[in-house]
Fold this protein.
Amino acid sequence: MERFFATCPRGLELLLAEELKQLNAEGIDAAGGGVEFSGEFFLCYRVNLESRIASRVLWRVGSARYRNEDDIYRAAFALPWDEWFERERTLRVDVTAIKCPLPSLNFIALRIKDAVCDKIRRLSGRRPSVNTRQPDIPIQGHLTDRSFTLYIDTTGEPLFKRGQRIATGEAPLRENLAAGILRLAGWAPGTALLDPMCGSGTFLLEAAQIALDIAPGLGRHFAFERLKNFSSGRWRDLRQQSAARQKPKALLPIYGSDISGEALRSACANLTAAGLNGVVSLKRANILELAAPANEGIIVTNPPYGVRLGEQQQLAELYPKLGDVLKKQFSGWRAYILSADMRLPKLIRLAASKRTPLFNGALECRLFEYKMVTGTMRHKRTQA
């Protein structure tokens, strides 16, 4: 049994743990920023291919206690790196830490890199090259106050880069966060879904792929394909099985709109690039003039947030009007609004039934849930 650690956006760890259980992982243990799990090595193929919520899948190759950088070097040097990848492969080392007493993570990363290169040079006579931009083999070290763990990243480019989005807005929503929000919202295929400020269409893309059972990793390559133990046969079979599960493409009850024609063109381009044209309904519309496309359903949206003063004032005027539209036009719906603007719950004048802390990259946000039942959702008191 091999040990792995799958990273994910903070706030989605329990959802990732549930997803890994469905993928037949064992020894599942959610932690801050990810989930530890175990299984045969080929499980990392399936998690990279199928997980909608993970960001990376890290294969744990060693761990030890340490007091200084020399301890870390010796432990890294002792590992059989030559058994895992060819000396012609390029590498990069990244280090993260919690409560590490050592003064420089950059120096620790340098010592790990030296240990790996020195070990391979001793065995083969040549040092592997370093590529800090697009390494063949990404290596990660993680330190606590007394111990450190070394991983080989089996993913490469992070999993939220599905390889299908060709156009983005100013502050794009990461795909795995969008998938997690759909899960938090309780959305299921067949239920009407609307993103009235869809931007480049991330929620729409994720929802359509979920509804059609399209594996998010089918359109890309992974770092595990460059490891010595890579089995092209196992990987081919897994991809074929996943592709065979896909449902026929048809128009789905998934709706997107935006006031910006440019945003809609981006959403349309991204859906087309993913082979999903004709699956999602798009139209140009002002959210304040929208009517519900079905008697009940779920709204998910990531509205713009103001950086400049003028933008903040515009949003302060928008939020109360948005609350009125939701109350009057979307009775029987549930709305989930992701925002980094903590003024939203005060200004929208609706009572949030749930507030879930989430991170879009480094940006701290809240997912506000509003259950639209006519006449009952006005604030009784102001909450921050």
About this structure: The chain has eleven helices and 14 strands.
